[in-house]
Amino acid sequence: MQARKNVALVVGAQGIAGLSLIDHLEKLGGWEVIGLSRRGGEAREHVRFIPVDLLDKADSHRKLGELSHVTHIFYAAYQDRPTPVELVAPNLAMLVNVVDAVEPVAKGLQHISLMQGYKVYGAHLGPFKTPARETDAHHMPPEFNVEQQDFLERRQQGKAWTWSALRPSVVVGYAMGTPMNAGLAIAVYASMSKELGLPLRFPGPPAAYDILLDVTDARLLGRAMLWAATDPKAANQAFNINNGDQFRWSEMWPKIAHMFDMEVAPPLPLSLVDVMADKGPLWDAMVAKHGLARNSYADVSPWRHAHGVFSTTFDFLADTSKARRFGFQEHIESEVMFRELFADLRRRKVTP
């Protein structure tokens, strides 16, 4: 008898985590991939995309209600909103709409993977206990990550499928037009600074320059998502996932400057949302001058997220020993991650 084919439904397929997971599954082989996003995507062998508005229950059921062969749901979609209260309704609704549409028809469903983050620990609210651990108490609601996990835990009761929740740090990797992409923000900010003849200046307060933090390589995150979804030991568990090392911007920033052949300057608090708002014409000129791919300035401008990352003045760390105990042993040096990302962006003609 032929083994049942694994079919991955990747929700948020054009985001930084979704793209990395799809790339990993393609290289691994043995998977059929269905990607969901509002923008759709270009189909290729074993990968197809469905454009869908997950906030629209009817559209979700119409387009997903026949996906009876899905075996694994990887949920990494996100709707940005200004406040924690406003984040709950849309982000919970999208997850509910996906599960409501797919679970009843996908009789071979084995696992639902949920993408979370350090918001579970209150990292977006202010100084939180570090290193954060999966057993730490939740903070006062609202918190959409917790609401989503609670929904999955309730829904899974008595079912054959299992769930997992992945909690990465700041995710660094390739994606265009996404609201959370600090690596792309650094590359574009550095390239524009260099174009203007400026040194590379850390755009946050001096206190942020010296915090201890970790980050998560999107490629490593993709491999962790698959591990947690397919290793029985990881069933119904949450895991912190980061690169496995820590650094201070005061140490890393000069190395990043060197990667762009730039001098470094002392930190200066800047609102990236404000100071980068008028840089569209500069970007268009750079695209023409350097023969870059024709990405719009909006697609390379995750400045709100980057401002938050560079303005954090408290340690930003989580313990990943639980994932190691359960079997995920992978790690990468963060300096290597940045170097490889910037080289990849140049290869793709995103930056000079």
TrEMBL record:
PRISE-like Rossmann-fold domain span: 59-299
InterPro entries: NAD(P)-bd_dom_sf (IPR036291), PRISE-like_Rossmann-fold (IPR055222)
Top-level taxon: Bacteria
Protein name per the record: SDR family oxidoreductase
Biological source species: Corallococcus terminator
Source species taxonomy: Bacteria, Pseudomonadati, Myxococcota, Myxococcia, Myxococcales
